Each structure stands twice: as C-alpha cells, then as structure tokens.
Structure to design on (479 residues):
C-alpha cells in the first residue's frame, strides 16, 4: 500500500498510528470524495490484530500518562491545540475533500473549535476540584482518577469535531486512547496523530486504528483491557457495541441519532423562524441535532411556508470548496440511496414535496420539504440524515408538545416564540437533551450535551465529560 497520499496538496499517512509509530495492514479500503465520487486513496484496513496492538499500546502507556502531573498534561494538550491552529487550512481542506462538508465552515468554524476543544478540556482539568469534607471528624477526600484505556468510535458527519469532543477530555483526565474514525472519513484523524506527536504526547497515549466498524470495532469494544467506550453514531451500531461491551461491563457513553422538532408558534418572529428552519439543511442535513420536523401553528403555516420556500430556493448547492456554496454533497452513494428511498416511500404514501424530492447530478440531494405526512409515518418517525424536512401543523400548545414528543428520540428541540412564559412551559414539557429557544446550534463546552430515549446514554461536556472518563475515588481518613 502507498504509505502517504497527497490530498488537495496535503500529505496524509494512510496507515494506523499505534504505539507512536505508523503500522500498515495487509488489506486496504478505498476512501472516496463525495465532491466528485472519485477515489482519494487506499487506507489501512484494520482488524482484530490491529485492534489488539492498539489496546496493548494504550494499556502500556497508561500508568505513566496517568501519573503525569495535571499541569503537564494540560501543557501538552495546549501544544496540540497550537498545532491544530497552525494547520487549520490543511485540516479544513482535507476534511472537506473527505466528507464533503463546507470548506468555509471547516476553515472559520470547525477547525478553530477543534483547537478550542483541547484548550477547554485542558483548562477545565485544572479547575476540577478534589473535594474534601468531614464526617464525624473523619476527612473525606474525593479524587478524579484516570480510568484507563478508552476506545472512541466516531462518525463521518463531523469527523474531527466529534472525535476531539472525546479525545480531549479523555487525554486530559489521564487516560490513553484508541480512536477509530469512520471509514467514510478517515483522514483528519491521521493528521491529528501527527499533530499530537509533534506536540510531545508520549507514544501509545493516543492511537488511531482505521477500518470498518464490523471488522475492527468489535475487537476494540469487547477487549477486557478497555475501561471506557465512547461512541457517536447510529442506534443499531450502539446496540451492537453495548452488547459487545456487556461481557466486561465496560462503561459506555452513547451519542446517537435524533428526529428533533422545530416548533414555530404564531407569536414568533416569523423571519427568525424561517432562518432557523432553513438552517436545518446545514451540512446537507447530515446533522444529528437537526430539527427536521417543522411543527408550525396553523394560523401562520401558509405564510411561513411561502417565506421558507423563497429562502430555500435561493440556497446554492454545489462544490463545498466554493465559499458561496450553502449545501454540499451527501457523503456516499449508499446514503443518497437511503435518503431517496425515504422520500419515495413518503410520496407513495401521500406526502407532497413542496420543494425538492429528487436527486441532483453528482452526489447531491435537492433540499426537500414534505407536507401531508402522517405522524406515524416512516419519514416522520425515522432519522433520514439528509436534506429532508417535514412540515406538520398544530392547533394549540398542547398539540404542539404532543407531536414534538411523539418520537423514540430525544436529542434536541428548537422553538420559535415571542412569549417567554410559553417558552418556559413548552421547554419543561419537551423530552430533549438540549432545547434552543429562538436560536439553534449554540453549544458551550461546559454545558451537558447528549440525548434522552434512543438518542443516547450519558452526557458530554465540562464536568460531565470528566465524570465519564474518571474513576471517582473517596478516601476517608480517621482523625
Ligand atoms: P454508524 O453507527 O454507522 O457508524 C459510526 C461509527 O461506528 C463508524 O466509525 C463505524 O465504523 C463504527 N461501527 C460500525 N459498526 C461497528 C461495530 N459493530 N462495532 C464498533 N464500531 C462500529 O453511524 P454513521 O452513519 O457513521 O453516523 C450517522 C449517525 O450518527 C446518525 O444516526 C447521527 O444522528 C449520529 N450522530 C449523533 C451525534 C450525537 O452527538 N448525538 C453526532 C453526530 C452523528
């Protein structure tokens, strides 16, 4: 296999990163770009031997990294952040080539935030208290001990962002890591390995194993030396991982799919509501948090739809490297087929495509809005993960809440309303890990992030991340 490929002018190593060195596999898989469907390169295809080697490297490196003073761990994480900052342009173009998301968003938003992820968790670590309190003269001392080797498994829709939400707190906590990026977007994880090594992270503390989930994933998640598994991806994969982790009772964090509602009340600023609704097409609809179910109060539904269609029609779909593009391609022909299947079945069942409802040349799906959809229909209940929104109307607040909560998911909800008391009432009634009122996608790393119901198990962010990645210990000392 070719050890290094040049991706849009950037050299990327195609091998695994295990124990501080590059490791090839006999087999490879082809990584293609959603921009033109063309192959980018052959990537090492790991299996059980590579998984075992990576966990062994993480296990061997753990005692020394766990014993490294917090300030030193934080210093190295800051050095990684500096390395990311220096390579923002390279990371941005490689990520865009690999997963088709907008270059302007990678360049101005995502990659600078990847650097922020490392700085944030390094600084949070230094603020994490070792609590002390007395019980009948005995002193209780609570410490946040590193847990051990962690397996982190991530999807393709925001590869480096989602990976570093896990990698940064896991490393900060004193754990060692094996990261398995998605096979449709393997490249920036490899660049992160280079950056971490340059920043002085000791060998074996951070490892990257490439390959298909079914081949390398099970060997990672069933390994008895792994002390934490953090997974972002789909519900069916999460079930398999949970079953695989069960033998060793390995603690799990699961960030899964959604079918989030966006509620528009008649008292809302309608322009804002339309802005929020159009935003749901971001990343070609490949966003777990997307409010894909538009629920609009009857009295404003016609006007809302008119303005929405005008705005959606003006979106530019095309090459994600072009700064003027609003919507890029979808990740893979298989995903495109899946999206189209959802829409065709919905239309066959009586839905009307107000806009879109079809593919476009290349790997693109036209932004779609479906009306006349039944609450119990597949397109209302299942995650499409493409630029497909449904619109339903409601008569009053009770019906709005009922429709919003009538789902197996509970990741997020967005509401547009001009009435703060209504916002409070509705928010209290919604089942969702995050509720945005008159805004969308605002995320502070210190806030808990995660889903209820099938959308996940546990929360990431601030102290919640350390809660997961640490073994809390209480020491009671006699007077
Ligand atoms: P997926 O479940 O197919 O794959 C995710 C990862 O799991 C990939 O790295 C894959 O290789 C790996 N994997 C697959 N089978 C495995 C196995 N048996 N053992 C171990 N690993 C395995 O999901 P996807 O299609 O890549 O991602 C889309 C999904 O992710 C959507 O449902 C989306 O909503 C969800 N998502 C959730 C969040 C969140 O924070 N809640 C964020 C982004 C995406």
């Amino acid at each position: 296999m070719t050890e290094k490929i040049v991706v849009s002018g950037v050299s990327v190593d195609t091998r695994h990163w295990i124990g501080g060195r590059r490791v090839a596999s006999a087999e490879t898989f082809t990584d293609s770009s959603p921009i033109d469907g063309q192959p980018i390169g052959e990537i090492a295809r790991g299996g059980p031997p590579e998984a075992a080697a990576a966990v062994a490297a993480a296990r061997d490196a753990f005692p020394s990294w766990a014993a490294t003073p917090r300030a030193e761990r934080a210093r190295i994480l800051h050095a990684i952040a500096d390395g990311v900052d220096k390579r923002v342009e390279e990371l941005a173009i490689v990520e865009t080539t690999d997963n088709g998301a907008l270059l302007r968003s990678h360049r101005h938003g995502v990659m600078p935030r990847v650097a922020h992820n490392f700085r944030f968790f390094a600084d949070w670590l230094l603020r994490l208290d070792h609590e002390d309190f007395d019980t009948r003269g005995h002193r209780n001392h609570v410490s946040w001990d590193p847990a051990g080797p962690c397996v982190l498994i991530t999807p393709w829709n925001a590869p480096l962002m989602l990976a570093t939400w896990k990698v940064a707190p896991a490393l900060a906590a004193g754990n060692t890591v094996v990261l398995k990026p998605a096979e449709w977007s393997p490249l920036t994880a490899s660049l992160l390995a280079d950056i971490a090594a340059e920043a002085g992270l000791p060998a074996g503390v951070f490892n990257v194993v490439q390959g298909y989930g079914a081949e390398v994933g099970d060997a990672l998640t069933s390994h008895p030396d792994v002390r934490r598994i953090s997974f972002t991806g789909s519900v069916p994969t999460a079930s398999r991982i949970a079953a695989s982790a069960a033998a060793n009772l390995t603690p799990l964090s699961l960030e899964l799919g959604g079918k989030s509602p966006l509620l528009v009340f008649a008292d809302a600023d309608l322009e804002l509501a339309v802005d929020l609704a159009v935003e749901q097409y971001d990343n070609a609809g490949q966003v777990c948090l997307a409010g894909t179910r538009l629920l609009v109060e009857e009295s404003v539904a016609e006007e809302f739809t008119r303005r929405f269609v005008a705005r959606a029609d003006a979106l530019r779909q095309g090459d994600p490297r072009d700064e003027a593009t609003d919507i890029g391609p979808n990740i893979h022909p298989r995903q495109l087929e899946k999206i189209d299947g959802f829409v065709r079945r919905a239309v066959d069942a009586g839905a009307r495509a107000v806009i879109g409802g079809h593919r476009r040349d290349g790997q693109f799906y036209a932004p779609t809005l479906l009306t006349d959809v039944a609450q119990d229909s597949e397109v209302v209940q299942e995650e499409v993960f493409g630029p497909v929104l449904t619109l339903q109307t409601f008569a009053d607040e009770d019906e709005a809440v009922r429709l919003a909560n009538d789902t197996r998911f509970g990741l997020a909800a967005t509401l547009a309303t001009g009435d703060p008391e209504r916002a409070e009432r509705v928010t209290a009634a919604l089942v969702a890990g995050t509720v945005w009122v008159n805004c969308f996608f605002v995320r502070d790393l210190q806030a808990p992030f995660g889903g209820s119901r099938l959308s996940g198990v546990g929360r990431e962010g601030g102290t919640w991340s350390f809660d997961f990645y640490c073994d809390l210990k209480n020491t009671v000392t006699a007077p």
